[in-house]
């Protein structure tokens, strides 16, 4: 699975998560151990986050083919939300996650989970 990240977006991510050696692209809807969001049927797949880690654990075993010098992973569950043309960009001072179908999350958050 391909992931394009603009230079501006990667710079922002690395500034926010400076100790991370890898990054997870995952839902923030209460469905996983990194999620601060409150889960409900209405917000499944509605909010996403970039989680900074220094160890990649199950179920985050799917490595993105990334156009930047950064290691990004996701899980099989999260992968179902991502289509072709997946891209992280900066828009109005926020990280934006989109694919060919449109904007998936206009306010992608960051979460530091470095141990």
From TrEMBL:
Alphabetized SUPFAM superfamilies for the sequence: HesB-like domain
Residue ranges the record marks as coiled coil: none
InterPro entries: ATAP_core_dom (IPR000361), HesB-like_dom_sf (IPR035903)
Residue span(s) of domain Core: 1-111
Name the UniProt record assigns to this protein: Core domain-containing protein
Source organism: Fructilactobacillus florum 8D
């Amino acid at each position: 699975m391909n992931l394009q990240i603009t230079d501006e977006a990667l710079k922002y991510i690395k500034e926010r998560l400076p100790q991370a050696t890898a990054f997870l692209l995952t839902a923030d809807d209460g469905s996983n151990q990194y999620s601060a969001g409150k889960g409900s049927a209405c917000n499944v797949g509605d909010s996403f986050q970039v989680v900074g880690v220094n160890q990649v654990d199950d179920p985050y075993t799917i490595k993105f083919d990334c156009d930047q010098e950064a290691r990004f992973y996701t899980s099989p569950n999260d992968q179902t939300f991502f289509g072709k043309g997946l891209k992280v960009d900066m828009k109005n001072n926020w990280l934006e996650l989109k694919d060919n179908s449109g904007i998936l999350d206009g306010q992608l958050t960051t979460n530091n989970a470095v141990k």
